[in-house]
Write a structure and sequence with these properties.
homodimer, 272 residues, Glutaredoxin, 4-stranded mixed beta sheet, 49% helix, globular
Chain lengths: 272, 272
């Protein structure tokens, strides 16, 4: 028996599960994507059921993505929270230093910052009042929040990662830290597509995700930011990830899902 | 020369720095709180300056809290993001298993979930449109968002932690995981005060912080939730932290700052 990895996530959208999928895909690691095999989301609903108290090893998770890792001895660990899953699998998949090494904290910090600004805040542009309510019921506030996001928050975060890429700690080449591709680069890559694509396709989300995700969600704003020339390294990183052989082949495969009504949504009225 | 820990955070408010302070205080570890010694925030501004590119080891941080740890050999590591700092110091201070151990991921997941629901979302109740704008300019939207927070999000997160505390993985006693006090318990404790206190003192914030913070921010809503009896274990955890000898003495000291205009604000109109 060898290690098995099961990703428990909603079916039908890339969402926060995509950050985890990219790590498995880039490293060529086998994993089961339960969203693809369970279109009615039974594995998610079982975990998030209000009667679930977890087991002796793992408390219940609040929300997906959730990873179940079963090792060669058959013992399982269930962990949740996107950055936490990436911390867990990063070193195992050769995409981060071992937990406890200085670099592991640096990469975890970069992952958290990319998720804050280019995933969580992107989500909140279309749900600024209540996650549980429809977009149409908060559309007017969403316009205000999206304007602030386009004009202030998105440039702030892109400018931040541009600085990280220019700093000495990033090392040589296109990557964020130490000259090697890590999970942090995959997160920054994924955050781009939906933001850009947001701007491209009216009410349809198609692109790649944090940078990729944002290209999907805010195509006009992202095109303007790219054209400004102020974030050259960030956009170069995106292209460097996109052309990795395994990533390229994944993006062209059926395993890559289209954006739909997830975190990264393209509402033209929010793209300014 | 021995290890030194410097907390770089805004002066004049507990904020996200408080989660870090509580770990140092509970473990009786010496640390320099640069917010107290630099009332004009020079250490924060130096780190977040748009010209700062970091150094060979650490990229620039986006925002505080930031921890600088200098070891006995004089080499320094600078890390940011609240949960990341707690992951870094948790095992060093005896408040978490070593990074890489299964329990370290469980605790990191609990910390992230408490910060999501009881710190970040609490903050967004008073700044639902734009972090960079005044509260008064987004007050009407804040009322809607706070209502959703009180009625849906806050009970959801308290209910979640109640389940965690009832589950087998929490072990015996009042703590979230494995029968021992960890950084996750300190985060959950801190998140309570401001939310409750929000409800207590008109436009003044005074209480403790995630649970403590929420007691400050939403005193009426929190009192109602406590009275419901549905979250007994969560409130018992809060009392168990509050009466730890070192925490008690810290809360009564000058080092504990009052809430002011930070994450946890008490606006009576947001308390329903």
């Amino acid at each position: 028996m060898s290690d098995t990895y099961e990703l428990i996530y909603w079916p039908g959208l890339p969402g926060r599960g995509e950050f985890v999928r990219l790590a498995f895909e880039e490293s060529g690691t086998a994993y089961a994507d339960l969203g693809l095999t369970h279109p009615r989301a039974e594995p998610v609903l079982e975990q998030t059921d209000s009667k679930n108290l977890g087991d002796a090893t793992s408390p219940p998770p609040l929300a997906p993505p959730i990873l179940r890792h079963t090792d060669a001895n058959g013992s399982s660990l269930l962990i949740s929270q996107t950055s936490n899953i990436l911390l867990y699998i990063g070193a195992r998949l050769g995409l981060a230093p071992s937990p406890g090494e200085p670099g592991s904290f640096i990469i975890n910090g970069l992952v958290l910052t990319a998720l804050d600004g280019l995933c969580n805040e992107t989500h909140d542009t279309h749900h600024p009042v209540a996650t549980g309510k429809y977009y149409d019921d908060q559309k007017e506030v969403a316009k205000l929040r999206a304007q602030d996001y386009r004009e202030n928050r998105l440039p702030k975060f892109l400018g931040y990662f541009e600085r990280v890429l220019k700093g000495d700690a990033s090392g040589d080449g296109p990557w964020l830290y130490g000259g090697n591709l890590t999970v942090a680069d995959l997160v920054l890559f994924q955050a781009r597509g939906p933001i850009c694509a947001w701007f491209h396709f009216a009410y349809r989300l198609t692109y790649i995700q944090c940078i990729d995700g944002n290209k999907h969600a805010f195509p006009k704003a992202m095109a303007r930011l790219e054209k400004s020339g102020e974030y050259k390294s960030v956009f170069a990183l995106w292209r460097a990830v996109q052309t990795r052989p395994r990533i390229k082949s994944y993006l062209e495969s059926d395993r890559r899902q289209s954006y739909g009504d997830g975190i990264y949504r393209h509402y033209p009225e929010l793209d300014g």
